[in-house]
């Protein structure tokens, strides 16, 4: 064999993730927050605040209204019993992924530089101008907030007691624990599960077991690029120069079990982040995911006061200096003044009809109509009110079924009974009509004027090019320590009208479902923290 060939360095295996690994971790977090209907969250080690930004996005509509606002419709054959309580009001999204209704969110970190961005990410947005041209609709512009939100960013170490965090509903710590020096690590579980004793606690950390995926089974240690264990306790090569350890899957499971038993929690342990391409050596099942994750749920087997007292004693014995946390920003996100103040159903139905006629649409999806700000405001933030107004209107027909089967609510549509009146003498009905006040290169018509610079490549779940790109093109996350992430690619020109949602699509704020993921139900709503299961 040629000696030159033998001396060539052995390259690491290329490992890519889709969605990117940090997004897969975020999706796991958001799915649990939705499942448990969590409304109060503290993120420990929030970094630049990407998760905080997602949590600060408003839900597109309120939870289902109470019976005094919208009496549930009973079937013709039913006879209501006055002695029985009324049935609960119908929920528009009973059969779909629920929205998050976050009321309070806190971020804590020690990096002043990162926290500057975190503060920006919790800042209430400036109201955007409405898209006023007939026939032009936006699913982001004009998104209203119907529920108040308190958002705070703190600077300080997690080893310091913050009395405001005691009794927090949920605490999240993603890719943080592996960065902690030994004395701070000793305070991690006593502080977070003992002093604060949240109802829920979510943790993710890199899996050292997965690191074998980057090299062939018979590759020498020199083939693995990375960072030697800085503590000198092991000969392991880590993914980041600031990692103090990286646990194997077995070590992580043992830590989860010990922690759950000590502090009175149940646990759901899993792994996140399978590579998009199969391992050429067939090790995928053995190595599992790139990040280990655990969901702790507090049990009633231990009194909260006992938990807290035990933990405070441990923290005191550690003798760590207790420099108080500093609050860097506090924002109260206000709500639309019309929240929970719906107009009469007849008025709402008339507006729906007028909008469909304005857009010359005989059929429109329910959620497309909801993102017309005027309609949502008239409904006071309750989409169920709009649905009821449509059901009771003789001019509108709510289509719940397709081919005899009831569809998911996100695919319900509205039919304009009798169709749209057509005036052949109206110049705007001509296909070559251009508004007289339109300036070439400006305004909403520009989005359709020229698609010559559309990027090449097939569109993925969010309309972005799905081919892999270099890390330089990837969306970054300060909590993400993995050097193997794959970028999304460049965005095509047609995204200009929805640029507000860029970067939030997989972060839980963009389209809920897509056909790329085997779901033939079409697009979902740009709701609060939407993500995928």
TrEMBL record:
EC identifiers of the protein: 2.1.1.386
Keywords: Magnesium, Metal-binding, Methyltransferase, RNA-binding, RNA-mediated gene silencing, S-adenosyl-L-methionine, Transferase
Molecular function GO terms recorded: metal ion binding; RNA binding; small RNA 2'-O-methyltransferase activity
InterPro entries for this protein: Hen1, SAM-dependent_MTases_sf
One GO CC term on file: nucleus
Disordered: region residues: 66-98, 434-533
Compositionally skewed regions (Acidic residues) per UniProt: 472-484
Enzymatic reactions: small RNA 3'-end nucleotide + S-adenosyl-L-methionine = small RNA 3'-end 2'-O-methylnucleotide + S-adenosyl-L-homocysteine + H(+)
UniProt-listed GO biological process terms: RNA methylation; siRNA processing
Cofactor entry: Mg(2+)
Biased composition range(s): Low complexity: 71-81
Family the UniProt entry places it in: Belongs to the methyltransferase superfamily. HEN1 family.
PANTHER family: HEN1, SMALL RNA 2'-O-METHYLTRANSFERASE
Name the record gives this protein: Small RNA 2'-O-methyltransferase
């Amino acid at each position: 064999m040629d000696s030159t060939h033998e001396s060539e360095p052995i390259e690491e295996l290329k490992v890519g993730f889709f969605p990117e690994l940090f997004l897969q971790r975020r999706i796991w977090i958001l799915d649990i927050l939705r499942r448990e209907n969590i409304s109060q969250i503290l993120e420990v080690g929030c970094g630049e605040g990407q998760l905080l930004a997602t949590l600060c996005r408003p839900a597109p509509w309120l939870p289902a209204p109470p019976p005094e606002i919208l009496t549930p419709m009973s079937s013709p054959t039913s006879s209501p019993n006055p002695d029985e309580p009324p049935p609960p009001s119908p929920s528009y999204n009973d059969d779909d992924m629920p929205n998050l209704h976050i009321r309070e969110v806190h971020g804590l970190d020690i990096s002043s530089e990162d926290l500057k961005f975190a503060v920006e990410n919790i800042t209430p947005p400036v109201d955007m101008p409405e898209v006023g041209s007939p026939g032009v609709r936006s699913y982001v512009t004009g998104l209203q907030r119907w529920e108040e939100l308190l958002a705070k960013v703190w600077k300080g170490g997690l080893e310091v007691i913050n009395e405001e965090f005691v009794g927090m509903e949920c605490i999240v710590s993603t890719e943080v624990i592996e960065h902690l020096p030994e004395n701070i690590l000793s305070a991690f579980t006593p502080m977070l599960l003992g002093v604060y004793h949240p109802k829920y606690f979510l943790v993710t950390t890199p899996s050292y077991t997965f690191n074998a995926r980057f090299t062939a089974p018979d590759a020498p240690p020199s083939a693995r690029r990375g960072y030697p264990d800085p503590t000198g306790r092991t000969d392991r090569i880590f993914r980041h120069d600031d990692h103090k350890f990286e646990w194997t899957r077995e070590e992580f499971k043992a830590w989860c079990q010990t922690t759950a038993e000590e502090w009175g929690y149940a646990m759901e342990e899993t792994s996140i982040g399978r590579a998009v391409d199969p391992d050429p050596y067939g090790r995928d099942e053995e190595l599992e995911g790139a990040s280990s994750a655990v969901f702790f749920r507090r049990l009633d087997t231990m009194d909260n006061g006992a938990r807290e007292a035990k933990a405070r004693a441990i923290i005191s014995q550690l003798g760590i200096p207790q420099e108080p946390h500093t609050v860097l920003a506090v924002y109260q996100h206000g709500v639309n003044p019309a929240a929970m103040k719906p107009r009469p159903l007849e008025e709402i139905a008339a507006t729906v009809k007028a909008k469909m006629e304005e857009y010359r649409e005989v059929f429109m999806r329910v959620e497309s109509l909801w993102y017309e700000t005027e309609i949502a405001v008239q409904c006071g933030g309750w989409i169920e009110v709009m649905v009821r107004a449509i059901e009771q209107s003789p001019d509108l027909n709510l289509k719940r079924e397709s081919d005899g089967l009831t569809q998911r609510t996100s695919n319900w549509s509205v039919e304009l009974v009798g169709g749209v009146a057509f005036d052949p003498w109206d110049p705007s009905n001509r296909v070559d009509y251009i508004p007289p006040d339109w300036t070439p290169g400006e305004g909403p018509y520009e989005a359709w004027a020229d698609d010559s610079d559309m990027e090449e490549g097939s569109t993925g779940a969010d309309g972005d090019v799905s081919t892999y790109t270099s890390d330089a093109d990837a969306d970054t996350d300060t909590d993400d320590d993995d050097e193997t992430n794959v970028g999304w690619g460049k965005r095509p020109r047609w995204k200009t009208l929805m640029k507000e949602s860029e970067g939030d699509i997989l972060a839980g704020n963009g389209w809920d479902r897509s056909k790329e993921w085997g779901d033939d139900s079409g697009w979902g709503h740009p709701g609060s923290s939407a993500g995928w299961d």
